C-alpha cells in the first residue's frame, strides 16, 4: 500500500455527502430510519462521483483508493456495516484503516446532534465496540492512541 495515497485519498471519504440534503446532514437530533437510509447513500454517491472523475484520467491509484474508501468506509469487520455488509478482509484494507480514524474523529468532534467526547472516553467507546474493527489495525490504534490525541488537538 502506498501511504501517500491513503493520506490523500482519505480526505475524500465523505465527498458523497454533497448529495445529501442539509436537513439531514445538519439535523440536531437522531435520524429517522428513512433519513438514515438516505444518509447511507453518501458512500455510493461518493464512489460514483470519483469513478466518473477517474474515468477521464485513466488508471490512477490515488482515485482508485479514493473510490474504495468512499464506498467502504462504513463497512464493519462483523459485517453489520453498509452499503454492502462486507465482512473481515473482504473490506479493502484502506477502508478498514480509514474506518478507525473516521470513528475516532466522529467521537472526538462536535456534531449537530452531539457534543464531542474527550479522548479517553472516545477510546473507551471504541474498545467496547471493538468488533466493528479489523483487530490488527485496532491494536495498532490502541498502541498509538496518544498520537491520535496529539493530532486531534493540533487540528481542533
Ligand atoms: Fe461517511
Q: Top keywords for this entry?
A:
binds fe (ii) ion; 156 residues; 59% helix; Hypothetical protein af1432; single chain; mainly alpha
Number of DSSP E strands: 0
CATH fold name: Hypothetical protein af1432
Determine the fraction of residues in helical runs and give it as a percent range: 55-70%
| Run of helices and strands | HHHHHHHHH
Please report the first level of CATH classification, the CATH class. Mainly Alpha
How many alpha or pi helices? 9
| Count of the domains | 1
- What is the assigned CATH homologous superfamily? Hypothetical protein af1432
Ligands in the model, by name, code or SMILES, are: fe (ii) ion
- Strand coverage percent: under 5%
* Overall shape: globular
The CATH architecture term is: Orthogonal Bundle
| N-end to C-end Cα span | 29 Å
